[in-house]
Amino acid sequence: MTRYLPILTWARTYDRGTLTNDVVAAMIVTVMLIPQSLAYALLAGLPPQVGLYASIAPLLAYAVFGTSRALAVGPVAVISLMTATAAGGVAVQGSPEYVAAALILALISGLILTVMGILRLGFLANLLSHPVIAGFITASGILIAVSQLKHILGIKASGETLPEMIRTMSETIGQANLPTIAIGVLSLGFLFWVRKGLKPILVRIGAATRTAEILTRTAPVLVVLLSTLTVAVLALDKHGVPIVGAIPTGLPPIGAPLFDPGLWSALFVPALLISVIGFVESVSVAQTLAAKRRQRIEPSQELVGLGASNIASAFTGGYPVTGGFARSVVNFDAGAETPAAGAYTAIGIAAAALFLTPALFFLPVAVLAATIIVAVLSLVNLSQLREVWRYSRNDFAAMASTILITLFFGVEAGVVTGVVVSLALYLWRASRPHAAIVGRVPRTEHFRNVLRHEVETVPTLLTLRVDESLTFVNARWLEEKVLEIVAERPELKHLILMCSAVNEIDASALESLEAINHRLSDGGVLLHLSEVKGPVLDRLARSDLLDELSGKIFLSQHDAYQELAAPSFHEGDKR
Amino acid sequence: MTRYLPILTWARTYDRGTLTNDVVAAMIVTVMLIPQSLAYALLAGLPPQVGLYASIAPLLAYAVFGTSRALAVGPVAVISLMTATAAGGVAVQGSPEYVAAALILALISGLILTVMGILRLGFLANLLSHPVIAGFITASGILIAVSQLKHILGIKASGETLPEMIRTMSETIGQANLPTIAIGVLSLGFLFWVRKGLKPILVRIGAATRTAEILTRTAPVLVVLLSTLTVAVLALDKHGVPIVGAIPTGLPPIGAPLFDPGLWSALFVPALLISVIGFVESVSVAQTLAAKRRQRIEPSQELVGLGASNIASAFTGGYPVTGGFARSVVNFDAGAETPAAGAYTAIGIAAAALFLTPALFFLPVAVLAATIIVAVLSLVNLSQLREVWRYSRNDFAAMASTILITLFFGVEAGVVTGVVVSLALYLWRASRPHAAIVGRVPRTEHFRNVLRHEVETVPTLLTLRVDESLTFVNARWLEEKVLEIVAERPELKHLILMCSAVNEIDASALESLEAINHRLSDGGVLLHLSEVKGPVLDRLARSDLLDELSGKIFLSQHDAYQELAAPSFHEGDKR
C-alpha cells in the first residue's frame, strides 16, 4: 500500500519540526513560482491564470503519489514550449479550443505517465540518450529565448522554428516600442546581474551560501513589483507597453476536459513526447536531490506521481506540468523535507490566485519575457557539443542532429529525430559486437586475441570469442562473421564459439546458431561451443541445438583446444 | 568496381560447362515460375500478365547486381499479400490506379533498398527479431490460404483480416459453384499428394533424390495443363467456372511509374515494410544456399541487387519482388552456378509472355488458388510457437502478439507491432544488464558473486561488477542500482565499479558515471573503478571524469581490494 501511496510512508512520522521546515521552504518556492507560472503560461500561449492553476492541484497530487522529497512540480519552460507547438497545431492561440487542447494534452500525458508507471515501463525513457536530451534542451532553450524577444521589443511575431521566428520578427521590427524595450532590457540586465553578481556580494557581506542562493532565486519578484509600480505610476500602458491586464480572481475551475476523439488522436503523439521529455527531466532532478541525502526515488512510482499531477492539472484548468529543476533546488536548499512542502506551496499559489491577481494588472509582459529568457539561457549549453565531440563521434552526431532539427523544424521533429538517431546508432553498434579470433598463449591455459598477442593457432581449428550476449540485434552479424571466416579458410575443420562473455542467447540467436550449425555441416566444418555459462546452457538444453550440434560442448576453452587441435599439437611437440 | 557490379566477378570465368548447368536450371525454374507468377499476381489483386512481367526484368537486374549464385527473384506470396493490402488502401482492385499503385510500391521499395545498400544500412533489418519474422510469415500464410478459399469455392469475398474474410465468405457461401469446387478440391488434393507422396515413389522407382525433388516442384504445371484442357473441352466456363481469360500477349510495357506526391507519401510506409520483409526473407535464403557451397553473399550488395530488381520491375509493368525460397532451392538443386541462370529464366518467362498466354485462356482460377494454398501452407508453422515458448517467454510474447495482430488487424499492423514489441523487449532486457556484487574468494585474487559463492566482504567497501557495456539504454539502471546500494548501506565508504566486461562507455553512461560520482561524494562515498579495459580507459581520459573522480582507477580488482579494504583486511589477518 505504501508502495502506491508514498504519502503513507512519510505522513506517519510527520512532526512539528518537519512542518516548520516544509512551510518555510513552501513560502520561498511560492514567491519564486508566482512570476514563473505567469511567464510559462505566456510562453505556452495560454492566459496567465492558467499558469497559476497548473501550480495548485498538480502539487497536491504529487504530494500524495510522488516519491521525491524535494521535487517541485508545476509549469516548466520546455514543456510549455512543447504545449504551445502541440496546441498551436490544432487551434488558434487565444481561442477557447486552444485552452481546451492544453487541457487534453495534460490529460493524455497524465494517462500515459500513469499507465507507464503501473506497467513499470519507465525503462522506455531509455529511448532517449543523454546527448539527445541535452541537445534537445539546449535547442529548446534557444528557441524559447528567441521567441520571447518579441515581448522585449514590444512587437508581434510568431513561428515554431528559428527561421520562422527571425523572419516574422524582422518583418515587424519597425513597430518596436521604446518604453517596452527600456523595461525589457533593464529587467534582463538586472536579472542577469542577480544571477552572476548578487550571490557573491551577499556571501561577502556575510550571508550563508544557501541563503544567498535562495535570495538570488526569488529576486524576480522584485523586478515584478518595481516594474508593475513603474507602469502603473507612469501610465506606460497608454504608451504602448503591453501589460498582463485583468486576471480572473478565484480558485481553479473544476471540470473535465473536452472529449473529442479527433482532437485526442491528433494530440496523442505530442502528448507522448511531452510525457517522455517531462519524465526524463523530472526524474534526473529528483535523483540528484535524493542522492544528496542518501534517499531514493522509485522511478515507476514517479511516473504515477507525475501522471496524477497532469491528470489533476487537466481537471482544474491547467496544462502539462513536470518537476522543475530550479524550483526543486530552491525547495531542497530551503529545507523541504517531505512532499508536503509542495502542498503548502499549492496553498500559497491558491492564495495568490484568490487575492493577488488584481495587483498584477499593470505587470508588463516584457518582464515576464525577461524572466523566461534568463531562466532558459541557463539551459543552453553549447560547450557540451565540444565535450561530446571529444568523447564520441557517434554521440556528437546524435546531439548535433537533434539540435539542428529542433531549431529548424521544431520541437516535435527534434525529439523524434533524437529518438530515431539514438536507436539507429545503438542498433548499429549493437549489431557489430566486440569479438576476437583467439589463440593459445604458449604453455598456458589462456586464450587471447590473435591480433594483439603472440599466440598459437592451428589451421584446421579456429576459435571465435564473442564479448557480448547473442540477441536478435547481432544474430545476423554472427551468421555473416562465421560464413566469412569459413569462406576464407578452406582448410578449416572445427569452429569453436567461445562464450565466456555471453550472458544470454535469445530465440533469434538460437535460430542463427542452428542455421550456422547446419551451414557449417554442409560445408564440412564442425561447430563447437566452449565456456558456456550455466544459465545459458540450461536454457539451450530446452532447445534442439544441443542434439543437432555437429560438434561438442566443452566446459573450458583449454579442453576444447587440447582435444581438437591434438594432431597438429603433437606435431608441434615433436619439432 | 566488382564490389558494386558482382557480375564482373563471375562473368570473367564463365565457360561452356557453367552455361549448360545454368541453362538447365533456368528451364526447370521457368516451368515452375509460370503458374506461380500468374498465381501470385492473382493474390496481389493484379492482372495475371503482371506476374509474368515481374519475372522478367527483375531477374535480369539481379543477375547484374546480386551476389547470390542461386537466388531466384520474382513475385512471392507474402510480398504479394502486402502489395494487395497497400494498393487496396489507395485504390480499388481492378482499376488502373491499383496497377499504378503496385508500380509505385515497387519503385519506392527499390529506391529504399538501393539507398540502404549504398549507405550500408542493412543492419536496420535487425529491427526484426526471428520470432517476429517467423510469426509474421506464419500468420501471413494463414491469411493468404484463407483468402484463396473463395476461388476454390467460386464465390466473391474480400477483406484483409481473418474476421473480415470469414464474414464476407459466409455471406456469399450460397453462391458456391459445384464444378469450380470439384476442380479446386481435386487440384488441392493432387498438389498435396505430390508434395507428400510423389517424392518417395519417385525415389523408390530409382530417381535421384534431387531429381525427385525437382519433378515434385514442377508438378503444378501438370495440373495447369490438365485443368485447362478439361475446362476447354467440357466448356465449364459456361457453367460458371471462373477462368483466367485473355492475357495480353507481348513483352512487358516499358514506362515510368506515375509521379503523384500524395500517392507516394501514402505508399511510403507500406513500401518500407515490403522492403524490410522482402530483404530479411531473401537474405536468409541466399545465406543458406551460399553456405552449402562455402560461398558468401554480401548483405549490403544484396540490398542493391534487390533494389535494382524492384526498380526494374517498376519500369516494366511489374510489382514488388524479392528472392523466393522454393524456387531458389529448385534453382540450386537443378545446378545453377551463377546469377546468369536467372537471366536465362527471364528469357524463358519472356517467351511465355510472347507465345504461351493464349494457351492459358481456359486455365481455371481455382487451380491458381490451389497452387497458392499449397505453397503458403508450407510457410505456416505453428509448432514454432511451442518451441519458442519452451525456450523464452519474452520471445514467445513477441511471436504470439505478431501472429494475433497480423491475423486480426492485417499485415501492416502485424509488422509494425512486431518491430515495436521486439525493440521494447530488447530495450527492457538491455536496460537491466547482468551485474553482481562481488567479494573475494578467500586467499585468492579472484572475485565472485556474493550470492553464489562464499566470499569475503567488508562493510565499508562494496564492489559492483557490471557484465555488459555501459550505454544509454542501461545508464539509468546503473544510477538507480548504485543509489539503491548506497541508500541501503549507511556504513559504506567506498564503491568500486569492476569493469572487466565493459567494452564501451558511451556519452550517456559517462554522464551517469559523473552524476553517480557527484551524488556519492555528496553522500560521503568515494567511487572507484577497477579493471577498466585499455580502449575504454583511453576514451575516458578524453573526458573530465578521471579528474573529477572522487576515488581512484585500479588496474586490478585485487589491488583495489588490497588498498581499500586494508583496515578490515589486517584485522582479518590477525585473527
From TrEMBL, chains A, B:
GO BP annotations listed: transmembrane transport
Keywords linked to the UniProt accession: Membrane, Transmembrane, Transmembrane helix
Residue stretches spanning the membrane: 21-43, 49-65, 72-92, 98-119, 131-153, 173-194, 214-236, 267-291, 361-382, 403-428
Residue ranges of every copy of the STAS domain listed in the record: 451-564
GO annotations of cellular component type: membrane
Coarse class of the protein's main subcellular location: membrane
Protein localization: Membrane
Membrane topology: Multi-pass membrane protein
One Pfam family matching this protein: STAS
Alphabetical list of PANTHER family matching this protein: SULFATE TRANSPORTER
Protein name: Sulfate permease
